[in-house]
Amino acid sequence: MTEEPRPLNRMPWLVPNLTVKDVGAAANFYSKAFSFFIKGTTSGEDDSDWHAELQYKDQIIILSKEGIPGKTTSTPNNIGLPSSMNLYFYCEDVDKIFHQALLAGAQVKTQPIDTQWGDRIAVVSDLDGYYWVIATAHKQMN
What we know:
The chain has a single domain, classed as 2,3-Dihydroxybiphenyl 1,2-Dioxygenase, domain 1 (Roll). It has 3 helices and 8 strands; from the N terminus they run βαβββαβαβββ. The chain has helices at residues 23-34, 76-79, 94-104; strands spanning 17-20, 37-43, 49-56, 59-65, 86-90, 107-114, 119-125, 131-137. The strands form 2 sheets. The protein has a 4-stranded mixed beta sheet with strand order 1-4-3-2, with helices on one face. A 4-stranded mixed beta sheet has the order 5-8-7-6, covered by helices on one side.
C-alpha cells in the first residue's frame, strides 16, 4: 500500500483560513481566549501582519488580513451579518475557556449549557464576528 502524499509542512488535511481585520489583534485574542499557540506571523508590504498560523492541540488555523492583495473575503462584522458558520472545538473545561474568552473580549451568544447530544457547550463571538462553539464531552451517548 502506498503512502498518501501529505500537504506541505505536514499540515492537516483541512485548515480553516479566517479573514480578520487585524491579524496581530486576532492572534492575541485567540491565544488569550482559547489558549491557541501562535506559531508565526508574516508581514506584508505595509509591514503589518498579513497572515498568522495558530495551533490548538493537533489542529492548525490560519488568519489572513482583510483587504490584502488577492483576498476578496471580509469579516462577518464588516459585512454586517451574523457569522454564517460556527467553529466547534473541544476543550477540557468549557466553563473555564468560556470565562477566559469573555475576559479576552469575546461576546456571549449562549451561556454554558448541557446538550441532549452529550456535550456541554457555550457560544461566543470573537473580535471579527465569527461564532465559536466551545465544547466539552459531558457524557457518552449511544
